[in-house]
Amino acid sequence: MSAGLVVQTREFDLADDLLAYADPADPRAWLRRGDGIVAVGSDTAHVVRVAAASEPRTAALTRAWDDIRSSARIDDAVRLPGTGLVAFAALVFDEASAADSVLIVPRTVIGRHGGRTWITRILDAGDADGDVHEAAASAAGPAADAVPAPTALGPHWAGTLGPGAQSAQGYQASVRRALAAIADARYGKVVLARDLVGTVPAGSDLRRLVRALSTEYPDTWAFAVDGLIGASPETLVTAQDGVVTARVLAGTTARGADAVTDARAAASLADSPKDNDEHAFAVRSVVASLAPHTAALDAEGGPFILELPNLFHLATDVRARLSDGASALDLAAALHPTAAVAGTPTDAAIAAIRELEPFDRGRYAGPVGWIDAHGNGEWAIALRCAQFDVSGSGSPIPLTAYAGAGIVAGSDPEAELLETRVKFRPIVDALA
Length: 432
Hints:
The chain is α+β, with helices and mostly antiparallel strands. The chain has 2 domains: 5-146, no CATH class; 160-431, Anthranilate synthase, CATH 3.60.120. Helices cover 27% and strands 34% of the residues. It is built from 9 helices and 23 strands. The strands form 2 sheets. Strands 1, 2, 3, 5, 8, 9, 10, 11, 12, 13, 19, 22 and 23 form a 13-stranded mixed beta sheet that branches. Strands 4, 6, 7, 14, 15, 16, 17, 18, 20 and 21 form a 10-stranded antiparallel beta sheet that branches. A hairpin with a 2-residue loop joins strand 2 and strand 3 (35-39). 50% of the residues are buried.
């Protein structure tokens, strides 16, 4: 590792589905409407795992990434989002979690953006022999035998899901306890989640799940990093060439069964004082976190109604210009946890989540995304997701899925339980 990495990106024609290049057992992918990046196969140049420690795990990953990128020799002839040296990452929601935050640098990445495709090879300097350099160095693109062969997605499979540590009745009881604390002014909002647990058959091609989510929910970020697979509608932060954007979602309702009830549901959400208050909490949280790192910050014009196949969200887009050189990982760390997934005030909300949820969230509702050597990157909040245990073999693969709802004054326990059921639908349907 002291010798650094040699990174080469070249454009080439690709007609295949990006997912055809990912590892069936442990895909690493970041996709939206057919664009994005995937790690080819299972090989990695570096994997950095950070467990609970005295310093924040994001700070440890940032330091590790700085070491990796500063010693890398990068030859990027394409210069699009996701080219050059990139790493996939998934971070825990709570620093007290027993789960690891992880940063993964793949050996080979294939990507697509705006109709252009490329391949990136990432090698240890000592292993970068002349044959590999020559294959990737041509301005016309890599040699045909330098492009890995795609593999067809495996057979369809179905998973099983059942109650987890938090039952439906237990969830409503937790909501009532939170409402009592809100009435006592201990906090203004807390986001409470519940879990479902299950398995998928041994040998399942997990790319099938990524494909189902990205197809059914094309406007979300479909992601797969270290067994964390989902489709998030919420962009935590995007940084590209000094421009910073974020999308804040808070306030939710299920869609109607027909055009009339659908329109009525959207209008009710737009006019709901409870949902608008919850949304305002979340927007203020994002603006306050971005302000020290940005200039010309704009969060006007919201909220608007964001339509997804199964529900409506109140949404506000935030845009700013980077003013201090912070990376996308730095910004993700500054923003997390937002009021949309934790509550407010943050410290009190996190304490309440630890008290009221009978499980460790792990990476659920934490930042997930990618970063490049220039600090650019795209990060979402890990929602509508499940964590798979991809470490074993020869037996059914365990998984835990999560969904949550924001609790504020005026929340109804039964309605909040229904909201979690609606939010479980993407992962439940895809697993079926």
